[in-house]
Structure formats: structure tokens, C-alpha cells
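Standup notes
- DV: blocked on the single-chain target, sequence here:
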Amino acid sequence: MQIDISGLTKRYKGGVPALDRLDLVIPTGMFGLLGANGAGKTTLMRILAGLLRPSAGEVRIGGHDVTTRAGRLAIQRVLGYLPQDLGVYPDLTAREFLDYVALLKGIDDRSQRRRRVAELLEVVALTADADRRLRGYSGGMRRRVGIAQALLANPRLLIVDEPTAGLDPEERIRFRTLLAQLAGDRTVLLSTHIVDDIAQTCRELGVLASGRLVFRGTVDELVRRAERHVWSVVTAGPAPSTGTVVSAVPHDGGVRYRVVSPAPPAPDAEPVDPNLEDGYLALAQNQN
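- DV (later): unblocked, structure below
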């Protein structure tokens, strides 16, 4: 299900645009949307989900115009949405919560509803904990319940907003793997400020900054933006003042710094191979 966005603008009170004439095509499959907090990602997700109306521009999902009432209704029938903050009922078990949401989504047949809930509890690896109350769930377990509720109607479009924020490393890896498995003949849109989530799950991505699209391409293309811009410097003195320090690791009585900079940050700086985080930082430097 392809998403076509043209001239999309959203202004809140005060006139400052959260999205500024955004043009973007998102194909079927897994697609990453990367940007700092405040870049406009959540605003875009809410518009795509039909929860927020744009100030200007056009959004078509599978040919449906999301700016019209008929288009929003059509999209919501094929949409699964996991917002950044999903409200759950802490006194319900995961099974009860999913059954309730399934009923809201129009799955009226009780036996069909039970089968679907059981299937999804298995998909998100929560079968053994299905009858525990949600108040006792970890953050990662709650996010997996969130994915399960988003999948109840077997959506062709799945939107997830900052799904791994606040999760421990093990839960983050588990969640990323689950998202990658859910792609295929559906569109999965992953919005995050965590670079590694994109690196480990997506082949294509877009980067937002201040409501504008500043990059659209593959992960490898963004990595190449940092070629000859990443340096290793070992010093016992102060940290390099040129560029952006990515990491600092103790090394032989000094510190080894990894620095993203268009020019060598020190006379003895050595070039190193870039990764996606380096490419993202190099792109950000070019925007300043």
C-alpha cells in the first residue's frame, strides 16, 4: 500500500509549521522515518492515521485521499496504529484488553474474536502472560500488547511511533525483530529518533528536520553521506573541538574519540568507515 504525500503542511497556533510543504513517497514494505524530537514525525503519523487534519497539501494512501472524510474512513479500515503513548486499562489482562479492542474494531463474532486474540498473543510472545493484569507488565510487554492491538484487523498499513523508546536492549531487539517480520505485503512505517532501530530493520528511510524532508533514500546512501567525514583521534588532552564527538573510549592512558567532521579534527586524526549514525550526524551538520 503506497503512501503519496504532496505539499503537506501543518501549522499549529502561532503559525509555526510542524510540517512544511512535505513531499514524500512511501512504498509497500518496511520504511523508516528518522528525526529528532520535535522534527514533525508524530504530527505526520497522526495525519496519516486520520487523527489530525493538515493545514494544506495532499495525502493519498492506496489511492484514498486522507484529507476527506470518506478517505479517512477507508484508511482506518485497513490501518493498524501504535501511538507513542498507548493508553491501556491496568486492571484488565492482556487477553481481556485485546478482546475489548477487537470488539471496538468490529470483530463481533465471539469465537472469531477469541481465535484472533489467541493468534496475536502468540505472535507477540505473550501467550504465557496473557492472563496477567497489564499493571504488572514491563514497558516492553506493554509495547507488544500495543502491536497486538494494532494487528487485530490484519491491517495493510501499520504505523508505529517511537515504539522502542524507554525499552531495555533485549526488549528493543525483540521488538525490532517483530516489526521486521510483520513487513512483506503490508506497509510498516516506523517513526523514531533512535538511529539503530532504523539501521537494524529498514532498507529505505526518510529524515525529517524542522518539519521538512532533508533526506530520502536507502540506509546505504545515508551512510555514504559520512564518507571521509568520520575520524578517530587518540589524545590525553581535551576532546576535539571540531565536529561532533560520537564516542569517547579510554585508550592507552588517553581517550579514543570518534568524530564526525568534514575536516580532520586534529593533525593525527585517522579516517574510519562510517555507519548510519555517522551519516545522520553528517546530514545534520549540513543543515546547520
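- Follow-up: The longest strand covers residues 17-26.
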